[in-house]
Design goal:
The chain is mostly helical and 242 residues long. It is built from nine helices and four strands. A hairpin with a 6-residue loop joins strand 1 and strand 2.
């Protein structure tokens, strides 16, 4: 993916922004920075700015009666990053072409891990329709979880094996991290099977993030700072789960 695509997406969001609060939220994200740096910047903003940015991204930060649906600014900042990056280019696992979800288009499915929207190609549409029918029937195990192509590949058993220690050196800590991540897969809650994520209500102004940042390999797909040819450090630009 080229930087020009990301610049285009962020420009479209800026043009869509209706007020200063939304623009301030967007200004907290920089595609050249790592996930952790963007997360630090966003969660330092006020709750009002983050709520405005979430609404710009068609998220639902508040319930109908005004109750906050996210436990703290750390979680909401994480979801804002994912929703912005879900507008970048993605490879479809069904038709194997590159696609990009439009800002005002809500995909039929969102990735359980990274909130990437599904493609609307003919090949994907057939499978999505079948999955939605099974979800409505209640016959899908665990509600019928969908993963985008990138998250699916990252969690392939062969790929997970590559993240473990090599026979020559060995790294028990990294091996344990891979095991721990399997427990994290269920920690993002979804609403109505659409992948529109919500959390238990709480005080957004209280930032109680106790995650050991960068301490383990995330099962999410990576959106590394893109300078073509740059070496990617999975341990510094991951999107940890909460």
């Amino acid at each position: 993916m080229t930087d020009s695509i990301k610049i285009t997406v962020l420009g479209e969001l800026q043009n869509k922004a209706r007020n200063d609060l939304e623009r301030k939220c967007l200004a907290g994200y920089d595609y050249k920075r790592s996930y952790l740096n963007n997360h630090d910047t966003l969660k330092s903003l006020s709750a009002d700015i983050l709520v405005a940015g979430a609404k710009l991204l068609n998220m639902r930060p508040l319930s109908d009666d005004g109750t906050k649906l996210y436990q703290n600014k750390s979680i909401l900042s994480d979801r804002i990053i994912l929703r912005i990056e879900a507008l970048f280019d993605m490879m479809c696992g069904d038709c194997h072409s590159t696609y990009r979800n439009a800002i005002d288009h809500e995909p039929k499915l969102r990735c359980r891990l990274c909130l990437q929207g599904c493609h609307d190609c003919e090949e994907s549409e057939k499978k999505v329709t079948a999955l939605l029918d099974l979800q409505r029937s209640g016959l899908c195990p665990n509600g019928g979880v969908w993963l985008c192509n990138a998250c699916l590949n990252k969690n392939d058993h062969d790929n997970l094996g590559k993240l473990k220690a090599t026979k020559s050196g060995g790294n028990k800590d990294q091996e344990q991290n891979t095991t721990d991540d399997k427990k994290d897969l269920s920690m993002i809650k979804e609403e109505d099977g659409t992948g529109d994520e919500t959390e238990e209500s709480g005080d957004l102004d209280q930032d109680t993030d106790n995650t050991k940042r960068g301490s383990k390999i995330s099962p999410r797909r990576d959106r590394s700072p893109h300078h073509e040819g740059a070496k990617h450090d999975h341990m510094k630009s991951i999107c940890p789960l909460y």
